[in-house]
């Protein structure tokens, strides 16, 4: 494998990296997820090939979003590359805030990017961010605890089954929670989870006239089910748990099930980090028989803010970090289970990768998420766990704070939904939607 990687790099490194002669230091803002941490550990490979150095600004997810949004909207110029996602990319591309990535090298093979990912990271047919990894969400569960409970996980379970299984697997005396889910405030943290879940209950953020829909039965059903299940079978303090907190709980053997990003599969099955690595099974995110599953679609991607003085070096880094060769590099050092998933078609045509136990379920989950048709009733927005309008991040952050207050026992579901309805409609009216 190492020899293959070296041969590939030897063949194309001169072509791909010869265009920039002067060494630069580029500053990259990224999220503190495992795949990004691994990338930082491998950047000496990039420096050796190009002469460019990299300075990292690594931030928790909510903080990253705030920092990069502020920087790009004020033309702050703090970063040469930003880690952003499917929500920001088309909006910022439309605004002219990002450098188009329409001139990447032939060796990079942009056509190999999964259509679900390139479509979500483009505006008007132009790619504005390259996916480092792509994800949907799925169920990760303890096969041993499921068996002990006398149950068998279906490949495509219902929410009713998940709640029953969570209760059956909960063992408070031994600090085992039947289910761990995001409750943390933030539009991309707990907000993303509850929105994706609400799709399967028949809820939507807006009707076709951009009226908020939090005063409808499907939203109340969603929150009542979520809060009831988490109070029965979830960990204490779940109102402040996001991706990283639940990952830690699962790896410590404290969760029977965890529904979250497909990218987590490599972490929970890594014996160096997970005490339950050999006991994990996978299934599609749950549904309610209404035709929509509760899985989302996302990519963490690398983009260059317009006005960067180091655009050429930044493009070289993006080509390096999101390339087929980078996947080979990670595989050669850490095994195929740990390569960045969900971004390239060729990865899912690679027999080495398809032997990884979660590879097929990840791809199936990505392919079943449709951002153009995510709700049971018709909605006016694109997006699965978000609405792709500029106002959404601010509105959804406030809504998620109201929901987290419910999870923490600080207000009722009815109070939170009434506040969500009012603040959403006020913001949409102020923005001129109504």
Structure description:
The protein contains 18 helices and eleven strands. The protein has 434 residues and is of the alpha/beta class. It has two domains: 2-135 and 297-356, Periplasmic binding protein-like II (D-Maltodextrin-Binding Protein, domain 2), CATH 3.40.190.10; 137-296 and 378-430, 3-Layer(aba) Sandwich (D-Maltodextrin-Binding Protein, domain 2). It has a five-stranded mixed sheet. A four-stranded mixed sheet has the order 8-9-7-10, with helices on both faces. A two-stranded antiparallel ribbon has the order 4-5.
Can you describe this structure in just a few lines?
This protein has helices spanning 2-17, 34-41, 43-50, 61-73, 88-94, 115-120, 143-148, 159-169, 190-200, 217-233, 243-251, 265-268, 311-321, 324-334, 351-354, 359-367, 392-407, 413-430; strands spanning 25-31, 53-59, 81-84, 122-123, 126-127, 130-135, 137-142, 177-180, 255-261, 280-284, 298-303.
Task: Please state the overall shape, judged from the principal axes of the Cα atoms.
Answer: globular
Poorly predicted segments: 1-20
Number of strands: 11
How many distinct helices? 18
Instruction: Supply the number of structural domains.
Output: 2
CATH homologous superfamily caption of the largest domain: Periplasmic binding protein-like II
The end-to-end distance, rounded to whole angstroms, is: 58 Å
CATH architecture of the largest domain: 3-Layer(aba) Sandwich
In the sheet with the most strands, the strands line up as 2-1-3-11-6
**Topology pattern, helix = H, strand = E:** HEHHEHEHHEEEEHHEHHHEHEEHHHHHH
* Rg computed from alpha carbons, rounded to a whole number of angstroms: 21 Å
Q: Helix proportion of residues, in percent?
A: 40-55%
What's the level 1 CATH class of the largest domain?
Alpha Beta
Q: Main β-sheet, in a few words?
A: 5 strands, mixed
